[in-house]
Structure prediction request, 660 residues.
Amino acid sequence: MPTIEDVAAAARVSKTTVSHVLSGKRPVAAATQAKVRRVIEELGFRPSALARGLTSARSHTVALMVPDVTNPFYPALARGLQDAVRDAGLLVLLADVGNSGAQERAFLIEAIERRVDGLVLSSFQLTPADLEPAVRAGLDIISVGPQLAGARADVVSADDHQIGADAVDHLADRGHTRIATIAGPAEAQPGAGRLEGFRKQMKARGLRVPESRVVEADFTRAGGRVAMERLLKARTRPTAVVCANDLMAIGALDAARAAGLDVPGDLAVIGVDDIDAAALVSPALTTVRVPAREIGHAAGRLLVDRIDGALPAARRTVLVAHDLIQRETT
Amino acid sequence: MPTIEDVAAAARVSKTTVSHVLSGKRPVAAATQAKVRRVIEELGFRPSALARGLTSARSHTVALMVPDVTNPFYPALARGLQDAVRDAGLLVLLADVGNSGAQERAFLIEAIERRVDGLVLSSFQLTPADLEPAVRAGLDIISVGPQLAGARADVVSADDHQIGADAVDHLADRGHTRIATIAGPAEAQPGAGRLEGFRKQMKARGLRVPESRVVEADFTRAGGRVAMERLLKARTRPTAVVCANDLMAIGALDAARAAGLDVPGDLAVIGVDDIDAAALVSPALTTVRVPAREIGHAAGRLLVDRIDGALPAARRTVLVAHDLIQRETT
DNA sequence: TCAATTGCGCAAACCGGTTTGCTGAGTCCT
DNA sequence: AGGACTCAGCAAACCGGTTTGCGCAATTGA
Prediction:
């Protein structure tokens, strides 16, 4: 690869001049510019972003940390994020860290060392304290989900609490009283918020929630299936179940089918997210739509503003609207 | 952020010594090491990957370019890729470039300037000539799909030709003769290969393929639906359709349902990919499974070997196995 | 006519690491 | 006792850009 020095030599100017031609930060005579540009073209010179970043201490990169890229929620989020930051010249560094706290922390360090400009994370394991090094390193952090709220990070999230409550209302309005829930893993943020909203709204509507009707699972189809099987073993079966995401809801449908139950006759099911698959399963899944792409987009916009220093120091919380989409499982 | 110089000063050694403690490339006395490490800890020093990359001319990053992250095929591929390269210390820079050739080329330039170590791309628009600058820049390139085969890139791909042929066999074996196909966009590689395989096998089995039974669409559900509607307008309707991917096949099912057709009675449908949704639609979609994650993994392994210089110069082609999964639409 | 200004370009320092060559002190061998 | 060798650490050069201060020539203003 030719360097700026090679270009300077071939064009018989100093590398300062080449730099100015590229950046436009100081005027360069038209003739000189033309000559330099021609040489750049001939040599196929491409300035090194590494070298550039060294002086500016910026990498023009934002890191995105997610627990599972194959959960369709996250690609949609990634897409929104990318589209929001691209115009600012930022590219997305993607990390799927699974549910491993160790991997999350390892990636955090990586992000710091790479001098990433910003960080968007949807984390299940991280605590605010874990973010400390990143904050000290000057990274702007956006947490998707309220888990990492506080002085350290902005938050872009759905209103998980309200989502849980809305799901309860939807089912209770249809006469259900024995409503169970398949929550996410205890550490997982969105699940926790939805569970809390579920509990509170059940209480508000005078419905009891025995602990046997609350089971945890990881956010996968298989997890939902296993959890549903457990719920179905109870002496008095629930007539409806609120699942903390669609993947688990689809797993719950698997279990219901295997048990020979009619949905929604014997069992009503509601999910959260509205991934594409929700509309495809049969019966089609009623769900609370969480606009993943918008969340990513909002996170990106917020991040760009932060990086530009255009925002006051106080951290923000952006809640995006969800809506309930009734299909055939309720 | 403290620099290596700050650490050196605080530990009363030269920065050379700090560097050696970090890299282990030259021996450092145990006592000195301990002192340096303590200071690093106290200061929270994290070496800048930018500065490091400047000397090594490596960024420890691989770029992944895809046409649509929200197509579930690609997240799976991304996951496999990440898992394969992580142990080599590489992170994945993701770009969703849509179907825009301009964006593809722009990202290619970005990747070069960032001195990315390797490039994995699934491109519809790029020609081998477009890769020239990247090759000259010394990037190792893996093409997912054979489009960019040649002296410039390794290839990891499914055997698209055979996939098309297998789909034809599956339908012909079941007695279909009026078989249509919904191909991908003409420029799109995987679609072209599958279409070719489709045509050849139809001929081999003595079946005619009037041009009205070949329609193009982009690789989306909406595209598939529109294409299917067109096919259904023909005077003699096809009794079966081969779709170049699952998303389009699902769109075709939408159209069939809208037209009041029974699947597979009036119309058999087969897709390609086996995304999660394929098993979820009703009736469940028969499809040719293409192991996206394995493809990503193979690409990652190949890339790491290339970067390590462990491979002879000759480019490789890795074909991954597909298999036909019969469900309910045939 | 002479000082002040402007336009253009260069040299040198800097960003934060890595790498190379060298030196002084201590150890081993003859 | 003297040479060869090892060990530990340092200074300086280097990677490829950006930024700052300065000099020279031509233009402007009084």
